[in-house]
UniProtKB/TrEMBL annotation:
InterPro entries, per the entry: Ald_DH/histidinol_DH, Ald_DH_C, Ald_DH_N, Aldehyde_DH_dom, Aldehyde_DH_NAD(P)
Cellular-component GO terms for this entry: cytoplasm
The keyword Signal is annotated on this UniProt entry: no
Name recorded for this polypeptide: Beta-apo-4'-carotenal oxygenase
Organism: Ophiocordyceps unilateralis (Zombie-ant fungus)
Tagged with keyword Transmembrane helix: yes
Segments passing through the bilayer: 28-48, 564-582
SUPFAM superfamilies: ALDH-like
GO biological process: aldehyde metabolic process; carotenoid biosynthetic process
Broad EC category: oxidoreductase
Domain of life: Eukaryota
Length: 586
């Protein structure tokens, strides 16, 4: 309801007969009862939809950034180790309770988180909620709703029939204590999501947020200290000394999101203690605008992901390979979409973020200053405001300054090409293992790109949609990282898959071949009875013998009792038929 509507509600009614004092008082009370809630709702709506950050700044107090004393790190680490050894984190309900508390902590601290993201990145409240807080809350709900199913023991795929009495199963074991080193660009989503995954798997966690988002780091510390068992999560703030102190400790896994240089240092350090790592590192991601692409759609969706968070996203495209006849129309559509997104320009748009700090600003600005290409969109900047306009440069040289490093900002290149094969060759020469890939066009061209260019993930006819889904694995390959996470895959990433077999005593009858003294007769019996026979000839051709048809029958149907009965019934009929056939031929 708007103020004009409230005016209509409050409009004076025609004169009424004189009422008693008690009746008049009741009428006033009723009017207040009706109007005050409406006023409250309107006020809440104004606050929620306001693009001004001043109101939030007035009511939110964020303490100045303070590093965790290095001397306190060992004690915190020991506390988490002790908690894990106690077995407390193995209880599924206990894990879910920590994640539920995080959900409500995010809700309670939402104003502080929104303000912290504004101070750190110039991020709008809309982006702070949509791409950070709301996303993590949705993942928290998903984890709590599905954790019981995820944690169930898995059966072994393709297990030979003869070994089924040994009841092999795969159990998800917590790793122990996990170190999560987070990035600056999405400090809520990327930090909290990884921590929740580690908790869901039954681990204790040390979190090291990025000092480059200092306000967010302080609110995250408050979140974990106030809403989660402090014996399960320990948030360490600081910079290089604190990170080095953490890496000197023995963790059971290290998860890092950031640049390749830092990722290499962390992986090298972890290798010294044989600690596994999960690395999400980014790369020079390509976008392909093929000859049959919807140019308007491609322009809107690619420009969007370069405007989101001012392009400071490891997933965004670094360059777009555009079929040469489409370049002019593609540039025109980019200009149109830019005017649609920000009619008054990015500088005054309340929706557009800023570069995180001066070092990153100057790095991106140097890419623009040193290019030999032609700026066709944007190009302005303001170091005092850490502002760089969304900028597109047409280049003809893969060694141009715009192409030789990941921009991690709102600038990108257009590289014209004449054939999809040429575009594929260029992409593979620029970065053979990017984190993401985007391709627009016909199914034929898109499939050709996907079949010939490797990437951590890919989206067809869109920007980074594959990584937005909580239910899909997100991660890199080669130089863009190793391992993956999100939702169920976070649970797996922070679990050890332990195989367990329960071997009955009577199994010695079929396992005699392993005992000394060895016997050639037992070896022959083992080969005849237990060793699988090849279903292919010496030329590699598949031979569909009895074992093939037997396997086909066993694979029919599902796991229900009815399906199992039907399979065994069919086998009995086949066996009977084979027996009758043998009798008939005698």
């Amino acid at each position: 309801m708007r103020f004009a509507d409230l005016g209509a509600v409050a409009k004076a009614p025609p004169p009424l007969p004189r009422q008693s004092a008690s009746s008049s008082s009741s009428s006033v009370s009723l009017l207040l009862f009706l109007v005050i809630p409406l006023l409250i709702l309107v006020a809440v709506d104004i606050i929620a939809t306001s693009s001004s950050h001043a109101f939030v700044a007035m009511i939110v107090s964020i303490p100045p950034f303070a590093s965790t004393p290095v001397a306190d790190i060992q004690a915190g680490y020991d506390r988490l180790r002790s908690t894990f050894r106690s077995g407390r984190t193995r209880n599924l309900e206990y894990r879910k309770r920590q994640i539920r508390r995080l959900y409500w902590g995010l809700d309670d601290l939402r104003p502080a988180l929104v303000e912290a993201l504004r101070r750190d990145m110039g991020k709008s409240a809309h982006e702070a909620n949509l791409s950070e807080i709301d996303w993590v809350q949705a993942e928290a709900i998903d984890m709590c709703n599905n954790l019981d199913d995820w944690a169930r023991d898995e059966s072994v795929v393709g297990l030979p029939l003869v070994y089924r009495p040994m009841s092999p199963r795969i159990q998800f074991e917590p790793l122990g204590s996990v170190l999560v080193i987070g990035p600056f660009n999405f400090p809520v989503m990327l930090n909290v999501s990884a921590v929740m995954g580690a908790i869901a798997a039954g681990n204790t966690v040390v979190l090291k947020p990025s000092e480059q988002s200092p306000h967010s780091a302080m609110v995250l510390k408050q979140l974990f200290e106030e809403y989660v068992d402090p014996d399960v999560v320990f948030c360490v703030n600081g910079a290089i000394p604190e990170t080095q102190a953490l890496l000197d400790l023995k963790f059971d896994k290290v998860a890092f999101t950031g640049g390749r240089k830092a990722g290499t240092i962390i992986a090298t350090k972890a290798a010294q203690s044989l600690t596994p790592v999960l690395l999400e590192l980014g790369g020079r991601n390509p976008a392909f605008i093929n000859k049959d692409a919807n140019v308007a759609l491609a322009a809107r969706r690619l420009l969007w992901q370069k405007c989101l968070n001012a392009g400071q996203i490891c997933l965004t495209h670094n360059y777009a390979l555009v079929h040469r006849p489409l370049v002019s129309g593609f540039v025109d559509e980019l200009k149109l979409q830019y005017r649609t997104f920000m009619p008054q320009g990015a500088k005054v748009s309340p929706d557009y973020s800023r570069i995180v700090n001066q070092n990153h600003f100057r790095r991106i600005k140097a890419m623009l200053d040193n290019t030999n290409g032609k700026v066709v969109l944007g190009g302005s900047s303001d170091e005092a405001d850490l502002f760089i306009e969304p900028t597109v440069v047409v280049v003809n040289d893969v060694d141009d300054s715009m192409m030789t490093e990941e921009s991690f900002g709102p600038v990108w290149s257009i590289v014209p090409y004449d054939s999809v094969e040429e575009a594929i060759d260029m992409a593979n020469s620029i970065d053979p293992t990017p984190l993401a890939l985007y391709t627009f066009g016909s199914d034929e061209d898109n499939n050709k790109v996907l079949s010939n260019v490797t990437s951590g993930g890919a989206s067809i006819n869109d920007g980074m949609f594959h990584a937005i889904l909580q239910a899909t694995p997100f991660g890199g390959i080669g130089g863009s990282g190793m391992g993956n996470y999100h939702g169920y895959y976070s649970f797996r990433a922070f679990s050890h898959l332990r195989t367990i077999c329960k071997v009955p005593s009577w199994a010695d009858r079929i396992l005699r071949v392993r005992y000394m003294p060895y016997s050639s007769g037992e070896l022959q019996r083992y080969r005849r009875v237990l060793l699988p026979k090849p279903n292919f000839d010496r030329d590699g051709n598949v031979v569909r013998g009895l074992s093939y048809w037997l396997g086909l029958v066993l694979a029919l149907g599902g796991r229900s009792k009815r399906s199992i009965a039907l399979r065994w019934g069919l086998l009995a009929i086949v066996a009977l038929g084979l027996g009758l056939g043998a009798d008939w031929t005698r």
